[in-house]
Amino acid sequence: VLPKRTVSSVNSVEDLLKLVTLICAAAAAAILVWYLARRPPLGRVTKVLLLLGLGLLPVLVALTGNIAGYEFTLSRQFCGSCHVMGPYIRDAADPNSQSLAAIHSRNHKFGDQSCYTCHADYEMFGAITTKMTGLKHLYYYVTEYAGTGPDGEGGPPIKLYKRQDLEKKKVTQEVFNQRMNGVCGQCHSTYAATWVEKHGAFADDVRSNAQICIDCHTEIHPTALSRRPGAQKTAAEVKK
Amino acid sequence: VTHQHVEKLVLISAIATLAALGLMVASIVFPHPLLLVLAMSVGQGLGTLSLALYLLAIALDLQGGRLVEDAPGASEAPPPPPPPAT
Prior knowledge:
A: 14 helices; elongated; B: mainly alpha; 2 helices; 76% helix
C-alpha cells in the first residue's frame, strides 16, 4: 500500500511514470539484495526470481525512466538547470516582461515547456535532432561554461545553433529561413484576419520564407549578460 | 564451465544491475542533465550487459546439466543402494 501523501502528489503522467520507475527499481533491488545476502542455490525458483530482478523489472525501470526523463527534459526547469540560462529563464517567468519568450511562456500551450516548444526542431525527426543538439549543449556547458559567473559571465557568447549552422554554411539561407519560420508557423498560420491586417505588405514574403519573423520581432529574449559588450567580466565586476 | 563459474557470472550480473538501477533512480530523483545522460547511456548499457551475462549464465548452467546427462554412464540406472547392515 502506497503512502497517501505519495499518491496524492501524482499529478501528471510524468509523475506516475516516476512512481512506477521507483517501485520497479525498489522491487528489483530487493530481489538482488536478497540474492547477494543469502546466495541461495540456483534452483528454478531462484532463477525465475533473478530473471525478474535482473531482466523484467530493470527493463521496466529503463522504459518508464526513459519516458519520465525525456518528459522532464522538455521542461523549462530542466533548461534552467545550467546556470548560464539564468537570464533567459528568469525573463520567461517574469509576468511583466514583454519579450517574445515571456509572452509565449504566459500562454498555457507553451507554459512550462516554452523553451522546448520554440527551440525544438519541428521536422519529422525533430525530437531526435533536438536531443542530439542537447548533448552538444551539455558538452559545451561542461567544457566552456561550467566555471563561469552566476549568469555565465566570462564565458563565450551564447549563439543559437541554427544561426551557427548558417554562419558556418552548413545550411543554406533558404533552409535556415524555413526552419526559423517553421517554428513560429506551428501556431501562427499567417492567414488569421488580424495577422493579415498587420502584415499585409510582407505576408507573401513571410509565407514564402523570403523574410523571417525574427527579422522584425527581435525582442525574443533580453540580451543575456554573457552576450553583452564586455561580457568577459566577472560577476563582481558587473555588479560594480 | 563449472557451477562456480555460473555463480560468479550471476554474482557480477546482480552487482552490475544494482549499479545500473542506482544510476537510473538517481536520474529520476535528481534530474540533472549530466545524470540523465549517464543514466540513459552508462546505466542502460550496464543493465543490458548484466542481463546478457545472466542469460549466458543460465545457458551455461543448462548446457552443463545436459553434459552431465550425456556423460557415459550418466543415463544408466543408478547402482542399487547397499543392503542395510544387519
